[in-house]
Amino acid sequence: MTDGKSTMVAKLSGLTITIAAAMVLSACNLAPKYQQPQVFTDSNDFKYATQGNSDIKAYELGWQEYFADPQLKQLIGLALENNRDLRVAALNVEAVEKQYRIQRSDLFPGLNASGSMNKSRTAADFRGQNSAAVSKQYSVGLGVTSYELDLWGKIRNLSDAALNDYFATREARDAAQISLVASVAKAYYAERFAEEAMKVSQNVLNSREKSYRLADLKYKHGVSSKIDLRTAETLVESAKADYQSQLRAREQARNALVTLIGGNYPSDIAARASLDQQFAYAGLPSGLPSEMLLYRPDIRQAEYNLKAANANIGAARAAFFPSISLTGTIGSGSVQLDNLFTGPNRTWSFMPQISIPIFNWGANKAGLDLTRVRKEISVVQYEQAVQDAFQDVSDVLVANATLKNQYASQRKSTAAEVDRNRLMQMRFNQGIADSLTMLDSQRQSYAAQLTLLAVQQEWLNNRVDLYKVLGGGLKAYRDGQVQSGAAE
């Protein structure tokens, strides 16, 4: 009995040594060493770089701090809480995380418990006796089934690839959040400016209707020609058409907002701020081009995809080498249930298996070549992401540097045009100016007011884009500083 136990202990010790040795060998990793691609730009700084507040960066600035309009902030909070696209992005992160956990579990042996009872009847002829016999067998055990030793780092590289896929998906979610904030702000501004344009059109329509009634009266008394009357009528109908177009734009912007916030427009909406007081910060520093690698989630996503492709090369290389898997059990068996855990009824088995690739070299070579091509694709996509990010920031900075001045000039020009129209109206009322000159003045004043609104809207949208392309609120979001509605 003692010799049996000694033999069993010796074999289990040998198994332990084998597993330990395999784990030491598993330190081998065939994946190429990762190197971040170098992407060169024309300049070490942005041409139209902005200084802004040197103590704050868009990356660190939460949207609740950047936007000043209470109504807009309420809508952004609802969108972050209810938006379906953002919810799908968050669920994708969760799904890929579970997939990573499944892949990572292959690094460790799975221990399974089993139990069985086998009852059988043996025919009398089989026993060579006059009567049949019924037998029972009971067994229980713990075992490891087909645990592959990671000698060449294949499982570890597959786990690393899954981990980087998870990180990339998380970056995609963060990018979706930043884009959602910008989309809500732009839809909100589209609605606000459509309403402002409707007011301008209504005022112009009222003025033109008065002019039309005067022109009609003059025509009936033979003071003016029918051309003057038709011109005034044309301008009235044009203002009506503009109003309907702006009404459509407002309703479509409202529909976009309803979709973005994921539900009905709130009835208890907060008060609005004026269009001149939409942002808490006058400007945002653009920072250095190298900081784009830290602030932009699309660049970070592309790099994680590249790291995953790099790890897959290591897994593909490991396919050329032998693989060893272990299956072993230890337990107890007996023909009587009462004696299952007593007496000399212990059982064990140990079945190592080795698989050596011989005739599948071509398939393994093609698999390795495929992973290398996919890595090259990931490199190009990373470089493209960096270049696109630089262009995005450069374009927004150029617009930011010019739109402010353009708006200021357009504001002065519009004020002058409106005043000129007022003076022309006075001259017309006094009979000094003719109707065509007065109508032309009204048309130019109206166009100038609509142009001013368009430039102002473009400028506000540009400030939203600046916040977006600089990774606005990303750090605050990840640190849990963003309050209501952030998707977890």
UniProtKB/TrEMBL annotation:
Keywords: Lipoprotein, Membrane, Palmitate, Signal, Transmembrane, Transmembrane beta strand
Subcellular location: Cell membrane
Primary localization class, coarse: membrane
InterPro entries: MdtP/NodT-like, OMP_efflux
Pfam families per record: OEP
Keyword Transmembrane in annotation: yes
Signal peptide: 1-27
Membrane topology, record value: Lipid-anchor
PANTHER family hit by this protein: CATION EFFLUX SYSTEM PROTEIN CUSC, OUTER MEMBRANE CATION EFFLUX PROTEIN
Similarity section: Belongs to the outer membrane factor (OMF) (TC 1.B.17) family.
UniProt name for this protein: Efflux transporter outer membrane subunit
